[in-house]
Design goal:
By secondary structure, the chain is α/β, with parallel strands linked by helices. The protein has a six-stranded parallel beta sheet with strand order 4-3-2-9-11-12, sandwiched between helices. A four-stranded antiparallel beta sheet has the order 6-5-8-7. A hairpin with an 8-residue loop joins strand 7 and strand 8. Helix 1 packs across helix 8 and helix 3 packs parallel to helix 8. The chain is globular and about 60 Å long.
Amino acid sequence: MSLQVNAITDDRPKLLLHKEVNVEEFFEEPSTLQKKVKTLAQLLKDSKHCVVFTGAGVSTSASLPDYRGPKGLWTLASQRQAPAEKIDLTAAKPTFSHVALTLLERKGFIKFLVSTNIDGLHMKSGFPVEKLSELHGNCFVEKCSICGKRYLRDFDVTENKIYFPDTPVESHWTGRLCEDSTCGGKLIDTVVRFGEFLPDEHFQKGAEQSWKADLSLVLGSSLRVSPANRLPLYAAEKNNGNLVICNLQQTPFADISLNIHAMTDDVMFLLMKELGLDIGRDDLLVGCDADVLSLSLIHISEPTRQAEIS
């Protein structure tokens, strides 16, 4: 299977939101879902360079809201409504999908992961930092505005911030200072807001890896925020490869991809079975950095809504 798209040109990476079209959610019939996951499993086996792209939908089973679902943050905002409960990112644990992706990387199926999530759950699951681009930042990471040193925290660095919106540094200042005695610069959060430029190192690394991909797997993203939404298209455009999108809503690229309308945990659960891989705690702890483990005890659970396959 080969999917073709038009050539892609790079603009300076700035976070931009595209107008929502339809928030209706779709669910595959169990037999259809099974067939599509079998196809995905074969594409993954045949792939030489698979890059995964994750959005908010990969974290919904961790009790974190998505953005564009019926109760998504942006959907509610457009209706001038607030979320029913306060979002506690610190308490969130990696989902089945997060830990499955970590194991797939260790088994060599995944070469790189690009995420627009700021929840830090990929790091908590032990996914290698050097193979991860967090395009919109990480709410547990702050960096020095002078020397650039980064600090990984066990709390949300965006809470209790001091806002001075007139300057970029002050608008992101967390109220803390660099711990290097020779520096003392102001620490800023790494979360990207709309209209701000993406971190060059993360975008460039994500773009370079995406350009090498022969398979792009999108999990839980409506692909309506640029420039991140263009990166998954590189596999099809450059390498005559494939694009697979797992999302409950339709995306702008439904006509050039294999579309799987199901919860990401359900898809990943079936995919791991197709690949003959079992997730065990020991698989996840091996090679996981101590500072990542200190953020959270890794929580492994079955999908919240497993597909019923006869």
